[in-house]
Amino acid sequence: MTDSLSRSVLVIGGGTAGNAATILLRRAGVAVDLVEAKPDWNVAAGSGITLQGNALRILRELGVWEKVKASGFAFGSLGVTAPDGTVLFVAEDIRTGGPDLPATLGMQRPRLQRILIDAVRASGAALRLGTTAESLAQDVDGVSVRFSDGTEGRYDLVIAADGLNSATRAAIGIPDRPEPTGMAIWRIAAPRPDGMERTDLTYGGPAYIAGYCPTSEDTIYAYVVEGCRDRASIPTESYADEMRGLAQGYGGFWPEIVKHIDDPAAVNYTWFDRHLVEGPWHRGRVVLIGDAAHCCPPTLAQGAAMSLEDASVLTELLTTRGDWDDQLLTDFRSRRLPRVRMVVDASVQLGQWMLDGVRDADVPGLIGRTMTALKERP
After folding, report:
1. 141 CB contacts (<8 Å, ≥6 apart)?
2. I want to staple 256 with a disulfide (CB 3.0 to 4.6 A). Which of 73, 193, 200, 203 is the partner?
C-alpha cells in the first residue's frame, strides 16, 4: 500500500463507473467524496441489463456478487431465432469472467443500481445528491472544486464518471463527443414467460433486431432495434404503440411479451452512440472513466463491463503507485484503450453490417474473437 491513504478523491457521477470507483477506493482507505446530479441517484432508471462474465468478475471484486447473483438470472447460451420464433441455433456463451462465474447474467438495471448504492453507502464515502461540480481550478498539487450547493472542496484527484454527455469532459477542454450510429432501441421490462431461460435474438423482420433477456425468476427486459428517427417527431405518449407495432411482428415468446407493452411511460427509446476519446483521457488531475471516455452500442452487451473495468484498473494504479502524476493517468489510458477500442469497434461494426444489408458478414466470428479476447484480465 502506498501513501494513497492520505489522499482525497472527488468522484463526479453516481452511475456504474462512479459507484464502482468509489467502493474500490474507499476499500483501499482513500477518502472519497461522491457527487451525483440526480437527487434520486437514478434508482429507477432503465429496464434491464445484460452482464457478461468480465463484468461479473468486477462486481465480485466490489463485494456485491452474491447480491447480484441472488437478484439476477444467470444463463450460459444464446439463441438465434427466425422472426416466427423458430429456433435456428443455440450457441454456448464464452465465460469471459472465468470458469467459476456464469457466462451471462441478466438483471433489472434499477436493482443493480440499488446494490451499488448500498455498497457506496456502506463504504463510508461522503455523498451529496442533487449536486454538481460547477468549476474546477487546478494547480500542480490538486484540484479546487466549487459545487452547485455553494460549498467548495480540495482534492488530489477528480474522477469524472458523469456519463456520455459529461459536463466535466467539456469543462476540461476534451472536444470528443458521442456520435449516433444510425440505430435506435426500444426497451421495456415485462413478466418472464414460462420457459424463457436465456437471451434469444432475431435478426430481421419488422426491425433490425428483436431480443429479450431474463432479469430474474419473474422478469425480463425486451427490446427491438430500428433505424434512428427524429426523437422530437415521436410523441412520448405513443411509445407503447410504436414498440408494440414493431414487436407484434415476431413469434415465439413475443406474443406474450406484447401483451405487456401497454404503458408508454414504461417504454424507453434511445439512440445508439459511438464514443471514444482519442486523445488523453485526462487533463492535469482530472480523469475520465466509463461513458465519459467511451461508449458503444449494446450489440455485445459490454458497456457496463467496460465502465466497471475502468474503475478497477484506475484504482489498482492509484493504490499501487506512489505518485499520482501525469504518467499514472497516461498509463491508465494506455492500458485501457486497446481493449475498449476493440469493443467499441466490434459493437459498431455489428450494427453497421445490418444497416448496410450485408448478408454474408462474419457475425459469429467477430463476436467469438472479441469475447475470447475479453477472457484476459483487463
Report:
1. 156
2. 193
Tell me if 15 is assigned to some domain: yes
Question: Using the 8-state DSSP alphabet, how is residue 192 labeled?
Answer: P
Q: CA 224, 185, 60 angle in degrees (round to 5)?
A: 95
Look at the block and give the residue holding cell 461522491.
Answer: 34
Assess contact for 370 and 343: CB atoms under 8 A. yes
pLDDT tens track for 93-123: 999 999 999 999 999 999 999 999 999 999 9
Rg from Cα positions in the chain = 21
Residues 186 and 113 grouped into a single domain: no
pLDDT > 50? residue 1: no
Rounded alpha-carbon distances, angstroms, from residue 66 to 7, 70, 211, 293, 337: 31, 6, 27, 29, 30
The answer on pLDDT for 186 being more than 80 is yes
End-to-end CA distance of the chain: 21
The CA-CA-CA angle for residues 149, 154, 159, to 5°, reads: 85
Q: What is the CATH number of the domain that holds 251?
A: 3.30.9.30
Q: Are residues 316 and 234 in the same domain?
A: no
Q: Tell me, yes or no, whether 158 lies in a domain.
A: yes
Kindly tell me if the per-residue pLDDT of 173 is higher than 80: yes
Cell of 351: 450494427
Q: Are 246 and 254 in contact (CB under 8 A)?
A: no
pTM of the model: 0.96
Residue 177 near residue 215 (C-beta atoms within 8 A): no
What domain range includes position 52? Answer: 3-72+106-178+274-373
Report how far residue 90's alpha carbon sits from residue 103's, in angstroms, rounded to the nearest whole number: 14
Same domain, 203 and 295: no
* CA pair distance 72, 48, nearest whole angstrom: 10
Query: Residue 159 in contact with residue 9, Cβ under 8 Å?
Result: yes
Mean pLDDT value of segment 41-53? 90
Within 10 Å of residue 34's Cβ, how many Cβ atoms? Answer: 29
